[in-house]
Amino acid sequence: MLKEAVEGQLASQKALRKVVDHFPQNSLVSAFGYGSGVFSQSLNDKHEGMLDIILVVDDANQFHEENMDRNPSHYPSWLKLSGAGMANRIQRNYPLKDARVFFQVVDSPVPMKYGVVHKDDLISDLILWDTLYLAGRLHKPTLPILPNTPDEILEAQSRNLQAAVAAALLLFPEEQEEKPIDWSSLFRQIARLSYSGDFRTTIGAEHPEKISKLVDAPGQLRRFQTLYEPVLQPMEEMGLLSNSTSNLEWNSSDQSARKALVKKLPPNVQSYKNADDLAKMLAAIVAPAARHQSFKGVFTLGFRKSITYATAKLQKGLFRKR
């Protein structure tokens, strides 16, 4: 059983570690679980969804070489014939702008989608928001699976979370900025950052209440607060904002505070003119990466499996029972 006696948590760290143990360990430096198979995203639905896991490696070629030996069924036939070098090139050197993640969907040991990412590519997205793909995923609560995450990843993630808070505050409409912002509203704004421009949301491959589910499902609000507390406290000490048990306040008319928040954004979005412009800039980052990463699944999953997975996603959104 993957159940864990924590509110809204469907999979324990120990159980996920057993899953990750099925993969080669030599190049694995970090791993985390996320999604509806790890954290409940409904007040009523207790169904254990597909597990989502990200494996962070420091040598993608070595990982794929060893994984093809250990888990050959994870790869389509043509890719097994082409070898680990081709898998590495598809992962890291895909000709179109994508998240540089190699995704696979497997049925054992449990139904699971896992993604392989090189440590350097993850760090780059966390700091620079190259694609806002994994950086956006890590704006939300995840479950660390391995101990001793490298310090450089932890530092990059801290910068990613600071940038997420800054972007969320700067995106609030002016009439909202003068009022206290409750925690649910703040975290919804943060969760929304990486969905803006994502074609999967537009075509109905995501549940229309996805953002609400991410923030308001059992235990999620507390997990968001725990995730962001380490970055909110220093920002409060700097005088950029103040927070209480129920809400957050900041003086949006204070130009020095606004400039300080802008500096926490990645350089590629610091030149925005207003909130609408910032939203468009973020969407322009998210859209091509999400689209191309999804198309890459045809090569990494194989045509039949990619169609099956896409259909399952649509059943959550466009084809869901009303």
From TrEMBL:
Tell me how this protein sits in the membrane: Peripheral membrane protein
InterPro entries in the record: Tam41
Return the EC number: 2.7.7.41
Which cofactors, if any, are listed as required?
Answer: Mg(2+)
Q: Which pathway does it take part in?
A: Lipid metabolism; Phospholipid metabolism; CDP-diacylglycerol biosynthesis; CDP-diacylglycerol from sn-glycerol 3-phosphate: step 3/3
Q: Tell me which domain of life the UniProt entry assigns to the organism this sequence originates from.
A: Eukaryota
Compartmental location: Mitochondrion inner membrane
Q: What class of enzyme is it?
A: transferase
Major localization listed first in the record, in broad terms: mitochondrion
Q: Name one GO cellular component term.
A: mitochondrial inner membrane
Protein name (database record): Phosphatidate cytidylyltransferase, mitochondrial
Species this protein is from: Cylindrotheca closterium
